[in-house]
Design the sequence.
């Protein structure tokens, strides 16, 4: 491309280092099968992280994704149990995501509520709705229909999940870097008022981004319902934090305007590989949050150093 | 003459009312709920219940006041729930192995100090987002608690003097309530009467300007995280003193939910996550409103999920209302590089 | 000349106060129409209504004879009205090319995909036309201020608009860039484009404007052809009274040296700078972008870390660490960008006034003296004649001139030895300007040593006892008041 | 002003919702038809004269309502109450947060219950609430709180403890593992939320017993937080890392089912056996299907016994300090019967 960008290279280097390290730490790590497992199980996180990346790039945050996921899981499980056609379930799922996303977007743009608080509110409301919908526990009965094929199915002996991840990232990459909408997303995050003066329809872009985030979260919920075959209302706890971590590790700035889809993908891989490695090496469950935290801290520090280094300025940064 | 002398007193009054508009309306709302509560439950106003309510509220209230400092300077602290856990664990471990109440409290306060210092230093010198830093420290502290306890609860002989902190009364008030009032008094004076408070406030409003006018911004920032962690420590000690034993809880719910409750309380009380707004009273009242509702709902028999739903709606509506209240008539345009300009012409 | 844009009975009310009152105004094709007036006169509001940012309460806008109503800046742009706002409008994280085309990216036919090749080549063409030498793939934040401003000008030009609005376009430009801008203006005029031009710099208005409209307190006072006014009469119309002298006389009594700068160097910014500042003196610092002049003021105040060389304050070495230590030693500093670096916009006036003097004047140990705070703040409001509803007023509710006065007032609440000022009157109207100058003089007379960095040449010439000219990081000349002229300053400033 | 108005509107909304909830979801079901609908105030006035009263108010605090077991408990409680015509029940539900639980229990005390049944997973953290109940002079019945043994503190607070012994369940699981493996093999353990009481008890029991079978090695031990999805992923990774696995022991059925899916995906269902706990219907179905799923141990969710004890205590009668409910091992031998009886 244009200029040599160390930060982009840096995250790739980190990924490579992690993979090399993994191959040393565990014999079973470096195999096609294992990597297909890693990607296969990161479908839901991938969907949510892409949505979160867009939201972070416009300078917002979406804490409601985990709850939206849970709600769509139980709803699609209920429909699947009732034998509803997969296409209909898909539509219902999209409608759920769209609605919550639109509510988030409207709250943030029209009532000027901070994104954190607005989505914290919808997070609680949607979680409550999920439990009210199932009456508490998981929906009884297992789904044994073609609905499960959406994640269990295989094409050329490769599981659909891997295609989903690839398609989602390519699509998101094209949208973000090549379309007018993508540029406007960056513009809104980089300077909202300026973007407005330049004719960017800031509110529409914001609402659209929250809707995308909502829909992706809802789709992730549908996939979970298909994957485990039940409607589990406890799904998705803490997913918002995982998605934010993925984005931050991938170099998406929480202050908006910065971040790429490639970065998000690398972030996703880093986080998924850490999780995979901890299982493979049978690291004590109790110690896992510590290992996780320290790795994320190191990565975040490296990324932040890198970004600071590029900013040449006369005045000392406070 | 731009200003008449006789406007001086009026000005002081307006200054006061304007400063505490949010707080006044929350207080009014709490009073209102209390007044209509007999219609909903005869039990709510009973003496015991109100004291219980205050005690239940005090843990959140102290944490919310701590959170207020961090939010004031435009930060956030997601690690207070984990801090409360660590503090609780260490307290019980020390007490059951024979250390005195005083030694234990001194130790956990030091631990709180260190946690705050780490958060503050990572945010200030590490140039990291407070959200990321405190999420990481939370994760690490959760891990430490699990590794140390293996997930099991810790109990044993705890000195009577320690348990009293959580269970005794001073006059008619439970000790935690009294401690909440003392903490409130100190933080209130800190914010309204000291230069430190003023510097915190303006630093939240504009970090660069504060630096340029002679504030040690880094120190202020770190101190806010320390204050937050210290108050979380107090909240942790009070919680564990009431129980006299420690139970790890690192997943959702439990003490881990405390950070979100504290943030919600502070914001309902008028603080803004972008910094430079809000007051200690606001955080206190926000927590009280929260406490009143979560006490009242089970009394009138609201289902637990419905309670959560209502809490979510309350947060949204309260924040909308706070936003409406404070956004002045002026239309502000944010400039690309962070400043803002009004419609000056 | 036919009328392109016409305003009829435009009124606008903010918070109950009319900001624009029944304005009738017609702009002709191919003219440069200057709008002048004090801050608060309604100029910016007027152009924001024309460009679709604000909506008028009453009145109509006609474009080419048809009534138009712009809901958003976007629709105004589409109708052919391009605006260059006062503050640099940019997305720092995006490239030059992306900024130039933001909101109107070229696309492949019938697809949402942006044609990046065309985007880049078009941007390159435009940048060349403006005589700029920048890579269009650079991110905006990596460019110096003046280039960023030029990119924005390029963006405004790119619209092929029939009306171009320019609000203080020269505020951040150096001489070369100004020349390039004026060339572009000529070109636009030749293409029959109407230019609406706002500037506080009278010399620009005189040399460029075909017609001038004066606004005052939201009312249209007069529209004059360029042979119908002179500087004095125009200023009188603007402020509603005769302004005796913009730069009032000061008692000259230069005394002992207060600040002594010896062989000061800071990295690539400046080398071996030495000069003295005397008690009661106003010392000007002049230079183009990156000349080092501005870096010197910032460095002395401690904003740039520890420099090489030494600075002595009243004979003792000044310990340069950060602003906090500098203030403790008696240094005061008026920042160039009041909104981002100086003021707490969402706070009341008291908090803004007293912050720098908190430790020394307004506290007893760590505790605030609140009554004294309010008393002194009130005195300052009177002394500086700040127009405000009271001390509770948030700074964001004040006009630019009054905000600037608050910033100045902050440094009058304690006794400082040296006051460093950057652009003391940027974006401030004539009336407030003269008041600020008056107070600077008073401060100097009281024994303060004043260092003033400004890009506004008349201000330096009018106010300063000596002017130091910087170029390429070196101190090129020290001109006395008698020696200093625009020409002599430029001569030294341009030396390479 | 606007703020107050907005909050007022909200509050009206909230109470309307609360009122709606009361009719549909809420659990204040007076068993005796003669009772007034506004039960709370009436009961409050009546506390002083409890002895003369002809109805007893029994409160039930459930810690969380996100698991079939917990919901089944509440359902069986309501069902059992129908058998008494002089019992009025009040059910409060926590959201898994100990503070909420304590608040709820305090509310039961305030409402003047004659006996309180508490089902908590908060370990020692709930003890202050126990103490409050005791201080208020109300009989306290602990149900399915999973306390390992009568530990000293809690013992003094409650009147009776009604539960299966989860440590025993852990021991039974270890025994069955030994039986399935003939004393030798590699075991993978999938744990619930590690700090939850039932995970700890089941873990304690298992470990206590497994040392007696030196041929059995636990080669991997990871938490899947009680969830099927997590277990699915964790098991997939463990399968990747370990070539020789003979048995998977999951601390609940949800996780066992997730692990089963992973094993089937890896095509290793012939070499690996699964045992777990809870006795969920879909788990029993798997046992019946005769695949790798060999055992699920049921936890008793019946609160009939607890209610009976509460009723006796409220009347002033004595009951045993500890009532241990039987657990049931569901294997291929008795699965048909089990399914027929329970679902």
Sequence:
């Amino acid at each position: 491309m244009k200029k040599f960008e160390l930060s982009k290279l840096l995250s790739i280097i980190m990924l490579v280092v992690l993979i090399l390290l993994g191959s040393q730490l565990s014999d079973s790590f470096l195999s096609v099968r294992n990597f297909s497992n890693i990607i296969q199980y990161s479908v839901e996180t991938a969907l949510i992280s892409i949505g979160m990346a867009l939201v972070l790039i416009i300078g917002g945050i979406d804490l409601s994704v985990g709850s939206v996921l849970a709600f769509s899981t139980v709803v699609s499980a209920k429909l699947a149990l009732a034998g509803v056609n997969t296409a209909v379930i898909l539509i219902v799922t999209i409608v759920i995501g769209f609605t919550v996303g639109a509510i988030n977007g409207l709250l943030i743009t029209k009532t000027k509520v901070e994104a954190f608080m607005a989505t914290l509110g919808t997070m609680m409301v949607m979680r409550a709705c999920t439990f009210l919908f199932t009456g508490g526990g998981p929906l009884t009965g297992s789904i044994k229909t073609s609905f499960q094929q959406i994640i269990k199915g295989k094409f050329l002996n490769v599981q659909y999940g891997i295609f989903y991840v690839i398609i989602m990232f390519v699509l998101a990459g094209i949208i973000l870097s090549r379309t007018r909408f993508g540029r406007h997303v960056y513009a809104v995050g980089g300077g909202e008022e300026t973007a407005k003066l330049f004719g960017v329809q800031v509110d529409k872009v914001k609402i659209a981004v929250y809707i995308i985030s909502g829909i992706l979260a809802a789709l992730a919920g549908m996939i979970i319902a298909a994957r485990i075959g039940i409607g589990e209302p406890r799904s998705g706890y803490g997913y918002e934090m995982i998605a934010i971590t993925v984005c931050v590790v991938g170099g998406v700035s929480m202050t908006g305007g910065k971040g790429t889809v490639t970065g998000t993908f690398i972030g996703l891989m880093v986080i998924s590989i850490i999780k995979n490695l901890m299982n493979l090496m049978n690291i004590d469950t109790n110690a896992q949050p510590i290992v996780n935290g320290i790795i994320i801290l190191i990565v975040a520090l490296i990324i932040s150093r890198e970004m600071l280094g590029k900013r040449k300025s006369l005045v000392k940064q406070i | 003459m731009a200003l008449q002398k006789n406007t001086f007193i009026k000005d002081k009054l307006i200054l006061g009312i304007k400063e505490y508009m949010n707080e006044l309306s929350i207080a009014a709302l709490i009073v209102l709920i209390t007044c209509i509560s007999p219609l909903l439950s005869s039990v709510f106003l009973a003496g015991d219940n109100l004291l219980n309510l205050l005690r239940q509220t005090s843990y959140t209230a102290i944490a919310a006041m701590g959170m207020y400092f961090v939010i004031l300077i435009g930060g956030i602290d997601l690690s207070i729930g984990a801090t409360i856990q660590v503090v609780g664990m260490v307290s019980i471990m020390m007490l059951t192995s024979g250390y005195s109440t005083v030694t234990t409290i001194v130790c956990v306060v030091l631990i709180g100090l260190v946690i705050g210092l780490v958060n503050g230093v990572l945010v200030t010198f590490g140039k990291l987002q407070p959200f990321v830093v405190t999420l990481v420290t939370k994760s690490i502290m959760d891990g430490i608690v699990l590794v140390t306890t293996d997930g099991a609860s810790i109990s044993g002989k705890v000195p009577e003097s320690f348990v009293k902190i959580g269970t005794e009364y001073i006059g008619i008030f439970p000790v935690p309530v009294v401690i909440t009032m003392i903490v409130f008094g100190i933080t209130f004076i800190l914010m309204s009467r000291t230069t430190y408070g003023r510097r915190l406030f303006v630093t939240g409003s504009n970090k660069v300007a504060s630096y340029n006018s002679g504030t040690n911004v880094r120190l202020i920032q770190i101190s806010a995280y320390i204050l937050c962690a210290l108050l979380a420590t107090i909240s942790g000690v009070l919680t564990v003193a009431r129980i006299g034993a420690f139970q790890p809880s690192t997943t959702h719910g439990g003490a881990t939910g405390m950070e979100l409750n504290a943030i919600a309380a502070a914001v309902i009380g008028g603080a803004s996550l972008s910094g430079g707004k809000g007051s200690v009273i606001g955080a206190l009242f926000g927590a009280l409103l929260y406490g009143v509702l979560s006490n009242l709902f089970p009394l009138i028999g609201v289902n637990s999920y419905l309670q959560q739903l209502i809490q979510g709606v309350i947060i949204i509506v309260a924040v909308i209302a706070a936003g409406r209240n404070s956004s002045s008539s002026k239309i502000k345009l944010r400039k690309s590089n962070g400043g803002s300009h009004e419609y000056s012409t | 000349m036919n009328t392109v844009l016409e305003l009829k009975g435009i009124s606008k009310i903010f918070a109950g106060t009319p900001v624009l009152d029944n304005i009738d105004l017609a702009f002709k094709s191919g003219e440069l129409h200057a709008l002048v007036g004090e801050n608060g006169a309604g100029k910016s509001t007027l152009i924001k209504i024309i460009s679709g940012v604000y909506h008028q309460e009453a009145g109509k806008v006609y474009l080419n004879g048809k009534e138009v109503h712009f809901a958003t800046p976007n629709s105004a742009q589409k109708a052919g009205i391009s605006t260059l706002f006062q503050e640099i409008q940019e997305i720092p994280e995006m490239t030059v090319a992306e900024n130039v085309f933001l909101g109107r990216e070229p696309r492949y036919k019938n697809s949402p995909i942006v044609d990046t090749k065309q985007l880049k080549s078009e941007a390159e063409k435009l940048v060349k036309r403006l005589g700029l030498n920048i890579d269009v793939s650079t991110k905006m934040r990596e460019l110096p201020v003046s280039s960023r401003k030029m990119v924005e000008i390029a963006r405004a030009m790119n619209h092929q608009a029939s009306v171009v609005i320019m609000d203080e376009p020269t505020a951040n430009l150096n001489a070369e860039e100004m020349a390039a801008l004026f060339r572009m203006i000529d070109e636009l005029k030749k293409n029959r484009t109407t230019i609406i031009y706002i500037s506080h710099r009278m010399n620009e208005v005189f040399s460029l404007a075909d017609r001038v409209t004066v606004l005052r307190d939201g009312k249209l006072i007069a529209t004059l052809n360029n042979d119908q006014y002179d500087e004095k009469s125009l200023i009188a119309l603007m402020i509603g009274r005769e302004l005796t002298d913009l730069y009032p006389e000061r008692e000259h009594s230069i005394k002992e040296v207060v600040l002594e700068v010896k062989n000061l160097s800071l990295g690539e910014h400046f080398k071996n700078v030495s000069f003295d500042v005397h008690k009661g003196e106003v010392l000007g610092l002049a230079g183009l972008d990156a000349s080092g002049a501005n870096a010197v003021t910032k460095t002395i105040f401690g904003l740039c870390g520890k420099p090489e060389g030494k600075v002595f304050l009243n004979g003792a070495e000044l310990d340069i660490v950060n602003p906090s230590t500098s203030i403790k030693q008696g240094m005061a500093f008026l920042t160039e960008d009041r909104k981002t670096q100086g003021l707490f916009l969402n706070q009341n006036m008291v908090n803004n006034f007293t912050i720098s003097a908190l430790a020394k004047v307004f506290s007893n140990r760590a505790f605030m003296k609140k009554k004294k705070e309010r008393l002194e703040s009130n005195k300052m409001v009177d002394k500086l004649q700040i127009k405000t509803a009271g001390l509770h007023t948030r700074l964001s509710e004040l006009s630019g001139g009054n905000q600037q006065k608050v910033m100045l007032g902050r440094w009058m609440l304690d006794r400082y030895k040296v006051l460093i000022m950057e652009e003391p009157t940027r974006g401030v109207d004539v009336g407030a300007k003269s008041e600020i100058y008056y107070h600077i003089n008073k401060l100097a007379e009281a024994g303060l040593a004043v260092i003033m960095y400004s890009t506004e040449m008349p201000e330096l010439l009018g106010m300063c006892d000596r002017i130091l000219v910087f170029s390429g990081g070196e101190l090129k000349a020290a001109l006395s008041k008698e020696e200093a002229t625009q020409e002599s300053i430029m001569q030294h400033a341009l030396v390479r | 002003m606007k703020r107050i108005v907005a909050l007022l509107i909200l509050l009206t909304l909230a109470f309307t919702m609360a009122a709606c909830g009361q009719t549909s979801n809420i659990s204040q079901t007076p068993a005796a038809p003669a009772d007034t609908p506004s039960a709370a105030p009436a009961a409050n006035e009546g506390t002083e004269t409890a002895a003369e009263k002809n109805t007893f108010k029994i409160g039930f605090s459930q810690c969380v309502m996100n698991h079939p077991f917990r919901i089944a408990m509440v359902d069986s409680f309501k069902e059992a109450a129908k058998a008494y015509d002089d019992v009025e029940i009040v059910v409060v539900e926590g959201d898994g947060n100990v503070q909420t639980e304590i608040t709820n229990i305090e509310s039961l005390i305030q409402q003047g219950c004659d006996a309180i049944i508490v089902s908590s997973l908060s370990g020692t953290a709930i003890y202050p609430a126990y103490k409050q109940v005791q201080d208020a002079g109300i009989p306290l019945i602990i149900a399915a709180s999973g306390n390992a043994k009568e530990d000293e503190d809690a013992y003094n607070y409650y009147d009776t403890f009604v539960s299966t012994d989860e440590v025993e369940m852990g021991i039974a699981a270890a025994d069955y593992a030994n039986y399935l493996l003939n004393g030798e093999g590699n075991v993978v353990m999938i744990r619930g939320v590690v700090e939850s009481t039932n995970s700890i008890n089941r873990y304690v029991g298992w470990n206590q017993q497994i040392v007696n079978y030196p041929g059995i090695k636990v080669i991997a031990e990871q938490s899947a937080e009680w969830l099927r999805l997590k277990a699915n992923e964790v098991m997939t990774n463990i399968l990747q890392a370990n070539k020789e696995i003979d048995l998977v022991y999951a601390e609940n059925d949800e996780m066992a089912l997730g692990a089963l899916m992973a094993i089937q995906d890896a095509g290793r269902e012939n070499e690996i056996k699964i045992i777990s706990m809870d006795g969920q219907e879909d788990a029993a179905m798997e046992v019946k299907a005769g695949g790798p799923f060999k055992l699920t141990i049921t936890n008793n969710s019946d609160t009939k016994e607890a209610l009976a004890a509460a009723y006796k205590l409220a009347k002033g009668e004595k009951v045993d300090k500890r009532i241990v409910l039987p657990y049931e091992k569901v294997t291929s031998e008795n699965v048909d019967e089990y399914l027929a009886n329970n679902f």
